[in-house]
Amino acid sequence: MDFQKHINELISTHPIVQMNMSRELLIYNAVSKGKALITEKGALATWTPIESTGRSPKDTLIVKHPESAHKIDWHSPSNRPMEPQVFDMIFEDAIRTLRTKKSFYVNDRALGADPSYALPVRVITDKAFTSVFVDNMFRPVPKGIEQSIFYKKPFTVIAIPYNKLDQAKYAGKLRKLPDGKTSDMVIAVDFDRSIGIVFGSAYLGSVKKLMFTVMNYYLPEHGILPLHCSANEGPDGRSALMLGLSGTGKTTLSADPERALIGDDEHGWSDNGIANFENGIYAKLINLRKEKEPEIYNAIFHEADYLQHGALIENCMMYPDGVIDLDDERLTPNSRASFPLSFLTNVKKSAVSGHPTTIIFLTADANGVLPPVAKLTREQAMLWFLMGYTSKLAGTETGVKDPSSTFSRFFGEPFMPRNPNDYIELLGKKMEEHGVSVYLVNTGWSGGPYGTGHRMDINITRKIVSSCLNGSLEKVKYVKDEQFHLEIPESCPGVDPNILNPINTWENKAAFHYRAEKLAEEFSNQFDAAYGLRNIPESVKSQCPGK
Fold first, then answer.
1. Which of 60, 251, 338, 405 is catalytic?
2. pTM of the model
3. Is residue 251 among the annotated active site residues?
4. Could you tell me which CATH number the domain at 355-541 has?
5. pLDDT tens, 144-177?
6. Active site residue: 109, 127, 193, 228, which one?
7. Strands (E), 417-522
8. Which CATH superfamily is domain 3-30+50-222 in?
9. How does pLDDT run across 276-317, given as a tens digit for each residue?
């Protein structure tokens, strides 16, 4: 099917197409058409149906083409296949739906601050609020886009958030729900034909994550490593990356007043250095505190006329006077805010930097057996990148003492569709080429597991991170942890050396060894289940705890 022909025909024949409207007009339309309310300070608030308060991973599908299927890791539970014919049906329904709309919006933007590989993206949607989100999150088309490797391969997203698919029509073709009916929503991407469709999901993150997945698929073929990470730059121009899952402290630690923020979530590492994919930030709001996250708080809640504001607040409790309650999670604990990076005070406007000198993998180990910091060799870094480990707590109110281990490959499993070697080999290659130091930093528990020990003091973690960034840990002696294959420093400036080796902080040494063996076994079992048949190099496999 010639998608572009149908899209061009739709745009050329529809009576009202809002083509690349100004930001102010998009904001005005979002409010005037009733899809957003103005908050006390001028930001816009909206609320979605309950099924759209977060991502819908089971409805997120990748079109499987015979000629490219070998590039995708279908062993990953996040990669769910869709037949091209089914995608074509959904596309036809999307075009048919847009034809019935009084008007729709077209935004031409780009992903990638480096024009040599910026991806032109056209987003077509019937909702002004979605268009404001696109304006916040995706970048203006850069000068020099003609030089981009993707200039002649633009991507198109069609987003129809509030219409639903015909369940009877798609019976046997889309997911079967617990009640026996067929799902009426889909987030589908066709890498080969450069098009994605969000149909029936009003969660704004569906559009963002679809395009993040696209970049993560396209870039490795061009020797560019996509990373789910934050990036900042010191006064000396040296950049650093931080990777970590939710709850590890990535946002807090990367927001360093002495370092300019390049971006907080999605970056590419090419032969030119680091570049942010995005134009904005999509931040979690639950329990946000001004004193802890002043930059993010002020970006959302600074006072401005609503037409000049444009921060979007999604699914957060708001009172009749426009005041937002950041602690109320009755609607969802996944309330979010979207705003441009320019709303922050300490950002690097170009959103690019040179090759990183330091990479930090953050983990919050609730077992209390990983060291506060460890230096990783090339193969160890590839292994910990592959595993993407942290702990997930079942809850703090019920006295749960056994956390569960969470493994999310490359610290972003749902959005990394390619075979794992495509990512780890690029990391190892770039580490070697540019002499990058990689550290594992544990922001979790010390002195015992969750329920017995205590959470690592944030001030100690800040000193550790500072030592990683300024090169202090390059000058100290290390001791080898044979069980986890980690190099633990014997000293770190400003940190009590007794806490650096976790066993020293436990009163019951036998309990420490039991807990450590249990975690190492979980690593080994996860590796075997996820990568046992994936041809991971033996030099990397041998660095897995429990191996």
1. 251
2. 0.95
3. yes
4. 3.90.228.20
5. 999 999 999 999 999 999 999 999 999 999 999 9
6. 228
7. 437-442, 445-446, 454-455, 478-481, 486-489
8. Phosphoenolpyruvate Carboxykinase, domain 1 (3.40.449.10)
9. 999 999 999 999 999 988 999 999 999 999 999 999 999 999
